[in-house]
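Before a colleague's protein record goes any further, I have to sign it off. I want your independent view on whether this chain really folds as the tokens say. The record follows directly below this note.
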Amino acid sequence: MVDVLTIVVSIIGFIPLYIDLILRLLKERKIEFIVERFYEPTKKPVDSNWGIRILHPNRPIEKCIVLYNNIPLPWWDDDELYYERRFVAMGGGNVRVPKAIQKEGVKIRIQNGKKTLKKVKFEDLHNAKP
């Protein structure tokens, strides 16, 4: 009887350790990064006053897409328009918000392919220097 009780107590004692291990593994899998907005008028790749910057993801983002009220935003590092980009860990990039679609109260959604990584209102983003 003592042996069974010892085993049960040992198993119960390890439950918090298992929970902690699972939580650590889940946190390591989550992609974390910085998102900020910046004011800088430009004509390329689109006529725009505002940009959104994504910085320092802790893991690679294979198919990063930034949606502005469900409209994909163009990346700013080329004169060609494209809407999906790969990030290496600790990398960064900027998208532009075309003047034609800019308005108040818009929600930004950052995705890795079809998986949503972050949702935030444009106005709630930290306003950074260009």
The first strand starts at residue 34 and ends at 42. The beta strands are 34-42, 48-55, 61-68, 71-72, 85-87, 92-98, 107-112, 115-121, 126-128.
